[in-house]
Write a structure and sequence with these properties.
The structure is a single chain. Helices cover about 50% and strands about 10% of the residues. It is built from 11 helices and 6 strands. It has helices at about 10-20, 35-45, 85-90, 110-115, 125-135, 170-180, 190-215, 220-230, 235-245, 255-265, 270-295; strands at about 25, 30-35, 50-60, 80-85, 105, 140-150. Strands 1, 2, 3, 4, 5 and 6 form a 6-stranded mixed beta sheet that branches. Helix 9 (about 235-245) crosses helix 10 and helix 10 (about 255-265) crosses helix 11 (about 270-295). The termini are far apart.
C-alpha cells in the first residue's frame, strides 16, 4: 500500500480503511511490540469479546533500554474488564492509568459502526482526541497487565527550539470537549469527564509553555506569546478563558499544581514571568552547587 505523505492521522485512516482483521493497532514506525503480543491478545479474546484491549508499555531509548523516566500509571490486575467511561476516569480524574496509541487494540467493527476516524488537520493531539472520543462512547475495555508495547524516545525528539505546531493538541482536545458537550447535560457523569479533558489540556498547555521557555534562551515571554499568536491566533486567550471558567478542579492534582492553576487564572502573564525567573534561579543554584561539590572533591 502506498499513499502521499499526509501526516500520521491520514496514514492511520488509510490503514483503517484497508484493514481486514478483527482488531487494529496503530503504531508509529519507530515503535515496536513484544513478540508475545498476538498470543496475549488471543488469550484475552477467550476471556471477553471486548471492543478495546489495552496493556502496559515501556518508554525506551534506541538501544531498547528502559528510560529512567516512565509514565507512573500502570495496569496491575491480570485481566480487568471495564467500560470506557471507567477507563477514562482512571486516566483523567484518578490519574491511575495511561493508555498510549500503541498500547491499545480496537475492534474494527466498533470503529466502523461509530464512524471513528482520526482528525487529520492537527499536528499533535490527534491521537488523544481519537482515543478519548472512542472511550467516551463507553466501549467494553479489557485491560491486560503485561508490557506488550515499546515507545522509542529518540534524542532528536527532545528539541530545544520552539515548535509552535506542538500546541495543536489544545484545539484538537477543545474540539472534542465542545462536540461532546453538545451531546450531554451538565448533570451527567460524562460532564465531569469533559471538564477533566479541559483541565488536562490546560495543565499540559502550561507544561509545554514551561518546557519551551526553559529550553530557549532567545524567547522571553513577550516574544514567545507573539510567536504563539502568529501560529495559533487567539489560543492563549482561549486557554485563559477556559481556566477561568473552571471554579473547582475535578481531577487529582498536586497542591503545587493547584497553586499554579490559581495564579494562572488570576494573572497569566505575571504567573509566567514569576515562574520563568524562579526556574532560572533554581537552575543557577543547581549549577553553583554542582561547581562547589566538584571543587571540594579531593584529589589523590
Amino acid at each position: 500500500m502506498t499513499k502521499e505523505n499526509g501526516g500520521p492521522s491520514s496514514a492511520r485512516n488509510r490503514g483503517l480503511k484497508e484493514a481486514q482483521g478483527q482488531y487494529v493497532i496503530f503504531l508509529d514506525g519507530d515503535d515496536y511490540v513484544a513478540p508475545i503480543l498476538v498470543e496475549e491478545l488471543k488469550k484475552a479474546l477467550s476471556i471477553a469479546q471486548a471492543d478495546v484491549f489495552c496493556w502496559n508499555f515501556l518508554v525506551v531509548d534506541e538501544s531498547g533500554s528502559a528510560l529512567s523516566w516512565q509514565f507512573p500509571w500502570r495496569l496491575t490486575d491480570s485481566y480487568d474488564l471495564l467500560d470506557g467511561i471507567a477507563i477514562l476516569r482512571k486516566i483523567l480524574i484518578e490519574k491511575q492509568l495511561w493508555v498510549w496509541t500503541g498500547s491499545a487494540a480496537y475492534s474494527r467493527h466498533f470503529l466502523s459502526q461509530n464512524d471513528f476516524l482520526y482528525a487529520e488537520k492537527y499536528y499533535t493531539g490527534e491521537d488523544l482526541e481519537f482515543e478519548w472520543r472512542v472511550l467516551l462512547k463507553n466501549p467494553k475495555v479489557l485491560a491486560i497487565s503485561k508490557t506488550l508495547s515499546y515507545y522509542v524516545q529518540r534524542p532528536a525528539s527532545l528539541t530545544k527550539t520552539i515548535n509552535f505546531r506542538q500546541f495543536d493538541f489544545y484545539p484538537a482536545l477543545k474540539q472534542l470537549y465542545e462536540k461532546q458537550k453538545e451531546l450531554i447535560s451538565d448533570d451527567e457523569p460524562t460532564s465531569e469527564l469533559l471538564q477533566a479533558v479541559l483541565e488536562w489540556s490546560i495543565f499540559n498547555f502550561l507544561g509545554l509553555v514551561f518546557f519551551q521557555l526553559r529550553n530557549s534562551k532567545k524567547s522571553p515571554i513577550k516574544e514567545f506569546l507573539k510567536g504563539l499568536e502568529q501560529h495559533h491566533p487567539g489560543l492563549f486567550q482561549m486557554v485563559v478563558r477556559d481556566a477561568r471558567s473552571i471554579t473547582r478542579l475535578v481531577s487529582k492534582v498536586t497542591k503545587k499544581d493547584r497553586v499554579y492553576f490559581s495564579l494562572f487564572r488570576f494573572s497569566p502573564r505575571v504567573f509566567l514571568t514569576i515562574w520563568l525567573h524562579l526556574s532560572r534561579l533554581k537552575a543557577a543554584c543547581r549549577r553553583l552547587i554542582k561547581k562547589l561539590m566538584r571543587d571540594k572533591t579531593p584529589e589523590y
